[in-house]
Specification:
By secondary structure, the protein is of the alpha/beta class. Helix content is 34%, strand content 18%. The chain contains 8 helices and 8 strands. The strands form 2 sheets. Strands 2-1-3-4-6-8 form a 6-stranded parallel β-sheet, with helices on both faces. Strands 5-7 form a two-stranded parallel sheet. The longest helix is centred in the middle third of the chain and has 16 residues, at 115-130.
């Protein structure tokens, strides 16, 4: 190339007259939904009553997982609100509807005590109708509500666990079963006996401690809730950001 031509080309480049090829845009990664943990309290307990183990567990999970995990506790009569929150969280492109891909990206864990345990199964069944999978359901001393079946675990649930005690006026369901054993693993039906090993629950109302003694004891028993928490944490993201497999 002659010296005059080189000089002319340099001037054109300096002036911006020669267009350069813009760099290729990097493909945008689709937004991933959070792991969703839903808890239900029993009876007429408020969702933020920190006396109860369901609420304490949620607080610990929020503290340890400030991002990537969405933890919410609901009163057991607020199941539809919980359902709406799940659908909203899974709608990552905010178009008002869930695609098949958005549904299959769901990582959902549901747990509850008493009536809240019954709502756990009912919510999972509603999600089955939506075509949404559930990683894990956990029932603690499940008391079935009217027109609810808290024994049969729907086939969209990968794993389910049941903790119960057999004594008193309110006694939990002793056994849960899968609607489809090929799709749902029952981790176990775990029995606790508070006649031989009573638990003190001094912060609970005296009425509950007197009339629903064993039903309250299983709710404040750290042995139970340590196991519940371990099952849940096993499904939460690891340090690499991946959700634990079965």
């Amino acid at each position: 190339m002659t010296r005059p031509l080189c000089l002319a080309l340099s001037l054109l480049l300096a002036s911006g007259s020669v267009a350069s090829t813009p760099p290729a845009a990097e493909p945008t990664q689709p937004k991933k939904p959070p792991v969703i943990v839903i808890g239900f309290v029993g009876g007429f307990v408020k969702h933020d009553n920190a006396v109860h183990s369901e609420v304490q567990l949620a607080d610990r999970l929020r503290q340890d997982y400030p991002s990537g995990v969405q933890v919410q506790v609901f009163e057991n009569h607020r199941r539809e609100k919980a359902h709406e929150e799940i659908l909203r969280s899974l709608d990552t492109n905010n178009d008002g509807s869930l695609s098949a891909e958005e549904k299959q990206q769901a990582h959902i864990i549901i747990y509850g005590h008493s009536w809240g345990a019954s709502e756990t199964v009912t919510l999972a069944r509603e999600l089955e109708k939506d075509g949404i999978p559930v990683l894990l359901t956990i029932q603690v001393d499940s008391i079935s509500k009217s027109r609810q079946n808290d024994m049969l675990i729907p086939a969209n649930v990968s794993q389910a666990a049941n903790f119960y005690q057999p004594d008193g006026f309110l006694r939990g369901r002793s056994e849960i079963r899968p609607a489809n054993a090929a799709r749902t693993q029952i981790i176990g039906n775990f029995r606790f006996d508070y006649k031989t090993l009573p638990i003190s629950c001094p912060l609970y109302p005296w009425f509950d401690r007197f009339f629903m003694k064993s039903h309250v004891e299983i709710e404040c028993d750290p042995r139970v809730w340590n196991q519940v928490e371990s099952l849940i944490r096993a499904k939460l993201p690891s340090s690499s950001g991946t959700v634990s497999a079965r």
